[in-house]
Amino acid sequence: MSLKLSYTLLSPLYDLVVGPAFRSARRRSLAALPRGGSGAVLLNGIGTGLDLPWLPPGCRCVGLDLTRAMLARCARRATNLEFAAVQGDSLALPFRDASFEHAVLHLILAVVPDAARALAETVRVVRAGGSILVFDKFLRPGQRAPLRRLLNPLAARVATRLDVVFEDLLPKVPGVRVVSDEPAVASSWFRLIRLERL
Ligand SMILES: C[S@@+](CC[C@H](N)C(=O)[O-])C[C@H]1O[C@@H](n2cnc3c(N)ncnc32)[C@H](O)[C@@H]1O
């Protein structure tokens, strides 16, 4: 099954399953966006738009996702925002270099088959000095996590990888530095990581 098909099938249930569990982590992550910022924000892998209510009012934002059925659920959440939805691939973003002031990567790096490439693409489209806000589940370097590694081949096909080590991505992606890295949910399996585009 492709990820596009599985997220199409999951789309009616997504908010119910994912919404409440991560509400507070989303709010914490997005609080880093400046109020009254002038540039546009990219929500890369926006899903059903659960981040939209936590963006600064009046924010100009673009939500990109591979799955039309997920994107279709965003519009009703985009009140008080200048919002555009784009169907596309995080691994080959259809935007010019430095098109965005900031970018949000919530629950997408562990989903795509090539997390380093998705991060590099995001870095490419954010201007120097901008923030990239990551919220996702990552293993620590050297962490064994046998159950997660056992389940990973199936989980990666239908919804998300369980074996991504954030520290393995950084050496492959120049032009960015870690500003903060905090535990978020599930005993720090999920982390809030703020990056700055250099
Ligand atoms: C776990 S959901 C996260 C959605 C949202 N960011 C959130 O925090 O709720 C993963 C999303 O990534 C999308 N997706 C999967 N592969 C993608 C790709 N290659 N490019 C863009 N979006 C992709 C799926 O359609 C789905 O909407």
Explain what you see.
- The protein is built from 5 helices and 7 strands; from the N terminus they run H-E-E-H-E-E-H-E-H-H-E-E.
- Strands 3-2-1-4-5-7-6 form a 7-stranded mixed β-sheet, with helices on both faces.
- It is α/β, with parallel strands linked by helices and 198 residues long.
- 37% of the residues are buried.
- The model has no long low-confidence stretch (mean pLDDT 95).
- It has helices at residues 3-30, 68-71, 115-125, 146-158, 166-169; strands at 41-44, 60-65, 82-87, 102-106, 131-137, 176-185, 190-197.
- The chain has one domain: Vaccinia Virus protein VP39 (Rossmann fold), CATH 3.40.50.150.
- Helix 2 links the parallel strand 2 and strand 3.
- It binds S-adenosylmethionine.
- S-adenosylmethionine is lined by residues 3, 7, 18, 45-47, 50-51, 65-67, 70, 89-91, 106-108, 111-112, 160.
- S-adenosylmethionine binds at residues 3, 7, 18, 45-47, 50-51, 65-67, 70, 89-91, 106-108, 111-112, 160.
Task: Outline the secondary-structure elements.
Elements: H1 3-30, E1 41-44, E2 60-65, H2 68-71, E3 82-87, E4 102-106, H3 115-125, E5 131-137, H4 146-158, H5 166-169, E6 176-185, E7 190-197
Parallel strand pairs: 1-2, 1-4, 2-3, 4-5
Antiparallel strand pairs: 5-7, 6-7
The structure holds S-adenosylmethionine.
